Amino acid sequence: MIGVFLSSxxxxxxxxxxxxxxxxxxxxxxxxxxxxPIATEYYAGDRYSDLRDxxxxxxxxxxxxxxxxxxxxxLFANDIIRILFGKSYTPASTAFAILVIGMFTRVIVGPNGAxxxxxxxxxxEMYASLLGMVVNVGFNIMLIPLIGIKGAAIATSFxxxxxxxxxxxxxxxxxxxxxxSMTIVTPIIPTIIIGSVSALVLRHWTLDLPLLMLITIxxxxxxxxxxxxxxxxxxxDLLLLKEIEENTSLNLSRxxxxxxxxxxxx
Length: 266
Fold this sequence. Notes:
single chain, mainly alpha, 14 helices
């Protein structure tokens, strides 16, 4: 649709940055393989309380791991595009940042697609996809002529928002689960503030890839610390670790002991 309204240059810019948004989904899609069989077992056994705890806790830690990548991608979008593709592609950096935010709307509601499968409502995927496509096309027609490839990125983001909205409504209707809680939102605020201040300080720097990776790691440590400082560690986090250990060969005893110590300090 960009090709219908704009030149081939804009098509090339958008096609270059569009695949990068998938990095936001890496941890979500990786965790689904572990989450789905456990969630299915809970739903089949009418253990809705356990399913709710599993969903919320999984979402919290998926967001915790993903958010530093999202924040770095948004705050330093221009540097990322310049490093990966060259200075001539930096006009697409705003569209890239919008796409990243749009994909994060999928992450912040957690493994809703896997939960739809776990509660045996897979047909909802078709309706959600159809609505997302209609919304995407509609906003493309309205926004691309007005603001170019940024409009295409906004349209894609809205498509994902409506796609997720359908699944969230169905999950709530069938199980009573609301995927977003304050334990997820509260730690994000300090990380955004400190990350934004850092971006202002570094705005005149010419960043390279190692420095961007270091910034992402530091933001990750900051966000984990924010979870601890805002007192959002819970007993449910220990139960999630126990489920992971029981269903994989991972030894998470040290992490579990540390979390127990932090929870006891409360």
